[in-house]
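Human: Not sure, check this?
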Amino acid sequence: MSDFGHYLWWAFCIYTTGKLPVDIIHNYLIITNMEKCICTNCGYQGKPSTITRGGIGTEIILWLLFIIPGLLYSIWRMSTKYTACPKCKKPTMIPLDSLMGKKILSELESFKGNEAGK
């Protein structure tokens, strides 16, 4: 595919889904399979949320004033999305069925058991 074809593909993906092709693949492979996760920072258990950097207001203003800066800002916002803990907003969510997830879960349960016994 030519360079122009790549640009058209990216523009089509952004226009139809609001996501970059990389995000589409990432969301399908990673986020959909992360139903049960645990945060290594705060201990939250559940599904991670997707955080997008930047502001929608800035994006709208850039699109209304200038097309090129608006496009660049939109691409930057879509490329800086990350999955994070909904509670502490840190990108420290890991699958609950992983070795580290099981270790953190057992530590949390033993800590809660010790707190209840006091």
